[in-house]
């Protein structure tokens, strides 16, 4: 079994912003392979920059299926 250690707090750390089919987002270390079920958004930056992107983009944290069920979106 392979284990990976990553310093999420390092100022040099680079992340990719990923999105899944429910339009939920995740930060992922830029040098690791994207896990199944997730797609790259095209954003690859420092944690601070990724956080700013998520703050502006992910305004409704409910999964897409729930938004559709409740709001008819």
TrEMBL record:
Lineage top rank: taxon: Bacteria
This protein's GO CC annotations: cytosol
Pfam name, any one: MbtH
Any single biological process term in GO: siderophore biosynthetic process
InterPro entries: MbtH-like_dom, MbtH-like_sf, MLP_fam
Domain MbtH-like, residue spans: 6-56
PANTHER family (alphabetical): ENTEROBACTIN BIOSYNTHESIS PROTEIN YBDZ
Name used for this protein in its record: MbtH family NRPS accessory protein
Organism of derivation: Streptomyces phyllanthi
Lineage, broadest ranks: Bacteria, Bacillati, Actinomycetota, Actinomycetes, Kitasatosporales
């Amino acid at each position: 079994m392979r284990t990976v250690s990553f310093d999420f707090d390092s100022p040099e750390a680079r992340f990719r912003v990923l999105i899944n089919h429910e339009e939920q987002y995740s930060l992922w270390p830029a040098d690791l392979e994207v896990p199944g079920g997730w797609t790259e958004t095209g954003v690859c930056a420092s944690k601070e920059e990724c956080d700013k992107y998520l703050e502006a983009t992910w305004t409704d944290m409910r999964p897409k299926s729930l938004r559709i069920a409740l709001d008819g979106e």
